[in-house]
Specification:
Length: 231
């Protein structure tokens, strides 16, 4: 199945009854086909399997740093108005995440900055974190992003280490949080709390010390989220 066939197939299976509710849930930021996650994934399963197989077939041990990601398909999906297509792109990136390399970094940044909202950005942050852990020179870029005017780049800088556990760079985590600790933006405050809450599962002492040391500057939302599972 080619990309244009897949697009037509997904559109042909739209569910008009659910469109309004899904658009309202996302604050009418995007159009929808009315396909909820389980249904969307069921309909896209065969196409994604084909796409992932084609992607993996391009991998070469002789050239491990070459990008094998199908960026042409991803940009086509991102250009479409219905949100299900960007979410299908996220599903694809989840499956090929181990193959992401430095050459993919700028493309991921472009996706972060295009049709930005938490439902795509938070997953792209994890993709970016996968590259940062491989390429330490990107640490300085994460610090730079944490000061960017764009809230989504700042959110990525805070969340990109979310699943790294013992591999978390605490100096970097502290830096990007402190760069945003007094920000009044909901998505930034939430990200700070989430990052701290998640890292507490690995290093509770570090998080407790950080929170208590910066309690006066942390927003009530960030503090509440950070301490949610800490007695």
């Amino acid at each position: 199945m080619q990309i244009d066939e897949f697009i037509g197939f997904l559109k042909a299976n739209k569910n008009p009854e659910k469109i309004e509710g899904m658009e309202n849930y996302m604050r009418n930021q995007f159009e929808f086909l009315g396909l909820q996650a389980m249904e969307r994934r069921s309909l896209s399963k065969d196409y994604l399997k084909q796409l992932v197989t084609e992607t993996k077939s391009r991998y070469s041990k002789e050239h491990p740093h070459d990008s094998i990601i199908d960026w042409e398909v991803l940009f086509i999906l991102w250009d479409l108005p219905e949100r299900e297509f960007q979410l299908t792109g996220i599903d694809y990136l989840k499956r090929v995440e181990p193959f992401l390399v430095l050459a993919d970094f700028e493309h991921l940044k472009q996706l972060v900055l295009t049709k930005s909202w938490w439902d795509t950005v938070d997953f792209l942050a994890k993709n970016i974190g996968t590259i940062v852990i491989k390429e330490p020179e990107l640490i300085d870029i994460m610090k730079t992003w944490s000061l960017n005017q764009n809230i989504w780049l700042r959110r990525v800088s805070i969340l990109h280490q979310l699943s790294l556990k013992d591999l978390t760079n605490t100096q970097l985590l502290e830096k990007v949080i402190l760069n945003n600790i007094e920000d009044e933006e909901f998505f930034i405050q939430k990200a700070i709390g989430w990052a701290l809450r998640e890292y507490a599962k690995t290093n509770i002492n570090w998080v407790v010390y950080f929170v208590e040391h910066h309690k006066e500057n942390l927003s009530s939302l960030s503090y509440r989220e950070a301490m949610k599972n800490i007695k």
